[in-house]
Amino acid sequence: MRIYNKRLAADKVLKLVKTELAKMESDESVTLGSYQNGREQGHSLSMIIVCNKGLKSLWLGFAENRSSDDIVVYKDTTMDPGMGISDEAYKNAKYFRTEQEACDYIVKEVENRITALV
Questions:
Q1: pTM for this one?
Q2: For 52-90, what is each residue's pLDDT tens digit?
Q3: What is the pLDDT of residues 1-12, one digit of tens each?
Q4: Distance between CA 113 and CA 67 in Å, rounded?
Q5: Contacts of residue 57, Cβ cutoff 8 Å, sequence gap at least 6
Q6: What is the pLDDT, as a whole number, of residue 6?
Q7: Of 42, 58, 35, whose CA–CA distance to 111 is shortest?
Q8: CA geometry: angle at 28 spanning 26 and 33, to 5°?
Q9: Is the dihedral of CA 71, 72, 76, 77 positive or negative?
Q10: Where are the domains of the chain?
Q11: Could you give the CA distance from residue 2 to residue 97 in angstroms, rounded to a whole number?
């Protein structure tokens, strides 16, 4: 019997992301959760930052794409993380061939969000 787990790629990305985020020197916090949308099963990362520019959010959901072996990363900067994926997140979808490329993009988005708010 063959068992195929579509979540394995997202699990690899999550492990890489956690390693990279642990290296960051920042007082900000991220919340890791699950991401589920039909055949896309993966993980999510969300940040809500309070700063002198107001309340800012970042949500990233990542999984193996439902119709390919690519890793898809959805990005939203407007949503409440508990409300589900928005049209913005679908419009901002990025596709990557490797787990490392997806990790690099996710970490860069976190870094960009933090530095933009300083």
A1: 0.85
A2: 666 778 899 999 888 888 999 999 987 665 666 788 888
A3: 555 566 788 899
A4: 30
A5: 46, 47, 48, 49, 76, 77, 78, 79, 80, 81
A6: 65
A7: 58
A8: 125
A9: positive
A10: 8-116
A11: 24
